[in-house]
Write a structure and sequence with these properties.
Elements (H helix, E strand, L loop, with lengths): L5 H5 L15 E2 L11 H9 L14 H11 L6 E4 L2 H12 L7 E4 L5 H8 L4 E4 L9 H5 L5 E5 L11 H10 L4 E5 L13 H4 L3 E6 L12 E5 L1 H11 L9 H11 L2 H24 L11 E5 L5 H10 L2 E2 L11 E5 L3 H15 L1
Parallel strand pairs: 1-10, 3-4, 3-5, 5-6, 6-7
Antiparallel strand pairs: 2-8, 7-8, 9-11
Helix pairs in contact: 2-10, 3-10, 4-5, 4-9
The structure holds pyridoxal-5'-phosphate.
Pyridoxal-5'-phosphate binds next to helix 4.
């Protein structure tokens, strides 16, 4: 006798990168930021009064929405906040796609959560292959008979970014299709499509505090788009969880987003280490697509990604590897501090020799 629904019995959930507790690793496997959050976060936590927790938080996180709107140069009615951008992305499926509709299109190699959400919300999918060099075939994708697209820009796990101009040509050509841009890593690239949301009603940009803001532990993300799209997300939220952003998260994220200078410095450091690491890896014979994110996707002829992953793990360095077609020859390496990256390079040299 099973009490499980058919859905619970059949679905294949998303697998997150490992968060091991057994020993201390140099952790370059889940694209966390190697630097701590802004000092203003520490201050917000210190001045937070626990007595306030007796009450429910603001249902629509209006203080944070206003702070995000200010930073992004949009109106608060164009902002929706959720419990991590994963939750925001999840809500886009019931908000914008029907089970009996034309479905959602995304790349064969992209954030694997899109496929899980589509299955969970019974949304049909069209999987469109990336080009051989891991860039998007936007011209080809245009022809897909779908209701909308999910495009991670920069893409995960490849790191490849699409210039804003190119995205604009795509969305301008498809006014009757919704384009959802997952900009989880955009701060490491700098071509955000938020400005397009003011001119195109078919663009929704989703961002997160987890990566460039060093706040993966707080679980907060947001969407920016036309007020009609944002309103649909609020309606979905209120069918599921009225208070996805807790009081502490709201205070912390509002403090973080105001500290532009601090985060610009951290991001710059990650970007320059990314370029150094890429050149070093290429020198060691790795194929490494140009990355616009805080990680590198690296593969080397005659050594499978799994071997590199296991040898590095034994040496105390965690990277991400997937035992899946298209991915198994590669590992994804998050950019760490200069010291962490040095250890990675040193261990890799040992492993390869
Ligand atoms: C990390 C990541 C997210 C999710 O971030 P959270 O806000 O932590 O849920 C979304 N999209 C992509 C492509 C990511 O890599």
């Amino acid at each position: 006798m099973s009490f499980l629904s058919k859905r619970a019995q059949g679905i294949a959930p998303y697998t997150a990168g490992e968060q091991p507790q057994d020993r201390t690793y140099i952790k370059l496997n889940t694209n966390e930021n190697p630097y701590p959050p802004s000092p203003r976060v520490e201050e917000a936590l210190h001045t937070f009064e626990s007595a306030a927790l007796r009450r429910y938080p603001r249902p629509n996180a209006d203080v944070l929405r206003a702070a995000i709107a200010k930073r992004e140069g949009v109106a608060p009615e164009n902002v929706f906040c959720g419990n991590g951008s994963d939750e925001v992305l999840a809500l886009t499926f019931p908000a914008f796609f029907d089970a009996e509709g034309r479905g959602a299109c995304f790349a064969d190699l992209t954030y694997s959560f899109y496929e899980v959400f589509a299955a969970f919300f019974c949304v049909p999918t069209h999987i469109f292959p990336l080009k051989a060099d891991f860039t998007f075939d936007l011209e080809g994708m245009k022809g897909v008979d779908c209701a909308g697209y999910y495009i991670a820009n920069p893409n995960a796990p490849t790191g490849v970014g699409i210039a804003r101009e190119e995205v604009e040509r795509f969305v301008a050509a498809l006014p009757d299709k919704l384009v959802i841009l997952d900009e989880a890593y955009m701060d490491f690239f700098g071509e955000s499509c938020v400005p397009l949301t003011k001119r195109y009603q078919n663009v929704l940009v989703v961002k997160t505090f987890s990566k460039s803001y060093s706040l993966a532990g707080i679980r907060c993300g947001y969407a920016v788009g036309d007020a009609a799209l944002i309103d649909a997300l609020f309606r979905m939220k209120d069918c599921f969880n009225s208070y996805p952003v807790d009081m502490v998260a709201e205070a912390v994220c509002a403090a973080a987003i105001a500290d532009e200078e601090y985060y610009a410095a951290c991001t710059q450091q990650v970007k320059s280490e990314r370029e150094r690491l890429r050149a070093e890896l290429q020198g060691m014979g790795f194929t490494v697509p140009k990355s616009s994110a805080n990680f590198l996707f690296a593969g080397r002829a005659k050594v499978c990604g799994g071997e590199i992953y296991r040898a590095l793990k034994a040496a105390g360095v965690l990277v991400r590897h997937w035992q899946k077609p298209l991915l198994e020859d590669f590992v994804r390496i998050t950019i760490g501090t200069p010291q962490q990256n040095d250890v990675l390079l040193e261990q890799l040299k040992k492993i390869l020799s």
